Batch of 3 targets.
Target 1
Amino acid sequence: MNVEALQIIELDAARAPAPMVDHYIQLVRNSLAECTADTAEYANALLLKLEHLASHQRAHAIDSSQTQVYLAPWLTIPSPSLRDAA
């Protein structure tokens, strides 16, 4: 892989969906062995950028054991009674 191909990947990854960014990460990783020294340096920097982009595109799982924090905890919403619903 050459620098031009890496630049194309970098430009396309900015607006690509997460599965495509994952594909680009694998593509760059697999091509590192056959790169020249300066191309490998650019590829390593691009990998950092792609991994950062991929991590920001994903929603992290929430821990349901933690209590929910509300912006106004003093406000309460009364649950409607069955008589009011009928």
Target 2
Amino acid sequence: MEEEKVSCPYCGSTFNDKEQLSKHIDRIHHGSGLLEGDSTKW
């Protein structure tokens, strides 16, 4: 069974799951704007 990849909306990098994508966005694209998330963390 092939896992579905998720891609970064900012740079197109692909990840195995949304958790890895979220960590990538936090590290690499922090400050680029939020697509979704908990507004209490802004």
Target 3
Amino acid sequence: MWHDSYWKLRVPYLKIAEMRDILESRNYHVTKKMTSDLLRSALHRSEQGHMSYHNCSNDELRVLIQARKIGLSPFGLKLSKRKLVDILQSEDQKPKFYRFQELPPELRNRIYEYHFASFHQPICAPSQPPITKLRI
């Protein structure tokens, strides 16, 4: 299993209070009603470097959606804040990087070095991380 999940983040088991503290320190939206599953999901998002959209206004969320060229129906401009946040979070789970090969070779090599530097031991038969798959 390790050879297929070496690229995944490993979030250690934390108590609810610990997860809340970490998320609050990262300016993530946290409420007392959040279950451990929701906290773990938010913690995972923060570990991936995603921003918390809950502090944004509806107009700011719409600007983010337009900047990322996320297709919305004409009714999309009138969606609730919750729906706008859901759209952005859903897109965060589908990262797109189509122009990796257009980067200068030196920069690509540095990215490879950074990626492989985190391996503490050799990996046998690793699978390709989804973000590195080219879509043609």
